[in-house]
Amino acid sequence: MIYKKLFLTGICVVALNYCLAGCKPEVSSETKKGLFTAFENKFLIGVAMNAAQIKGEDSVGDSLIINNFNSISPENCMKSENIQPAEGEFNFSLADKYVNFGLSHNMFIIGHTLIWHSQIPKWFFVDANGNRVTRDVLIERMHKHINTVVSRYKGKVKGWDVVNEAINDDGSYRESPFYQIIGKDYIKLAFQFAKEADPDAELYYNDYSMSLEGKRKGVVAMVKELQSQGIKISGIGMQGHLGMDNVSLSEFEKSLIAYSELGVNVMITEMDLSVLPSPWSVTGANVSDSVAYNEMMNPYVNGVPAEKIIEWENIYTAYFKLFLKYHEKISRVTLWGLSDKDSWKNEWPIKGRTDYPLLFDRNCKPKAVVDKITGLTDSK
Ligand code: GLA
To answer: Whose CA is nearest to atom 4 of ligand 1?
Structure first.
């Protein structure tokens, strides 16, 4: 009787969830194996959560996340523009919910990101008159920001992207306001402040295009310098925003090796594989050019041709094979979003396109590629 009651309650809850959810009701959320079960003992499998998922407004999405991922990253809610929109005014409401979600489902919770030149509020670099702040003031602001945020989630957030995107593709330091005002020491200071606030948290450097030779050399040199100064750095995040027209598994592999040789964990922190053409690899295409050009750059509004899907699946599978080959060096692989409808790639670098970069489709249905990549571990 009690089981029957539970069963019926279950059906009602599922039905209600479907009604409230952002995804369509008729879809199945089943994969042959949950993603994280398939990669157990290899690496964590993470996903970036958006605001609707964190608030419980996408219950189908939430249940997929719970069943498939054992690590979460906050897509936006912990970025400085959201968490400290005005000086000294911290807004933790969404970040608290995010952390509570991870705690209640026993997940490895990532904090993203403490020091980044982007999605940062304007006040951070200027005084009341709009003039650039001094080095000392900026260091104090960094300290207060990092200390307040990291201390709040001490022992709960297990790993922090401490510094994001500080190195250019050619290996030089990005001339961000942090760099211009403080110099490259801002990176060292950020790691020191994070460690001071939570000595047990893992601390990461995170960046995109990490397979490029120039960036690889720059990041390796920077990390070596930090290590020689006794700075704690636990891992390097290769974001992994990938495109089909610039696949270079061998360069990716070289970077995996180079970063792991530094004695730190390597993580794929923001993986997605766009199916759309990149404006930068098309001759004569300037992203800011014309709106008419967008149509050509948005070829799959009504679906992706079968042969393109196969090509896309093969690339995803090849990357996961590579991750498995280096699983002893890789601690986590995180997807930058759950389903295609959630992906930032629909809006970047050209707004309003229809992209298909993730493992779950617009109806939150697992794509065929999920069984392909989870199947890779079957014989191991
Ligand atoms: C970078 C950031 C992420 C996110 C993506 C695009 O990779 O690290 O937080 O903003 O860009 O969504």
So the answer is: 75
**What is residue 294's predicted lDDT score, i.e. its pLDDT?**
65
Measured CA to CA in angstroms, residue 263 lies from 189, 195, 322, 329, 357 at distances of 21, 18, 19, 9, 31
pLDDT band at 5 (very low <50, low <70, confident <90, very high): very low
Average pLDDT over residues 314-333: 98
**Active-site residue numbers?**
165, 270
Q: Is the pLDDT of residue 111 over 90?
A: yes
Q: Ligand 1 mean position to 239 CA, how many Å?
A: 8
What is the 83 CA–ligand 1 centroid distance (Å)? 16
Average pLDDT of every residue of the chain: 89
Going by CA atoms, what residue is nearest to atom 3 of ligand 1? Answer: 75
pLDDT in tens, 124-168: 999 999 999 999 999 999 999 999 999 999 999 999 999 999 999
What residues form DSSP beta bridges with 206?
164, 237
Mutate to test the pocket of ligand 1, among 270, 334, 345 (most ligand atoms within 8 A of CB): 270
Distance of CA 81 from the midpoint of ligand 1 (Å): 13
Q: Do 95 and 77 meet the contact criterion of CB atoms below 8 Å apart?
A: yes
Instruction: Give one word for 106, left, alpha or beta, with left for phi > 0 and alpha for psi -120 to 50.
Output: left
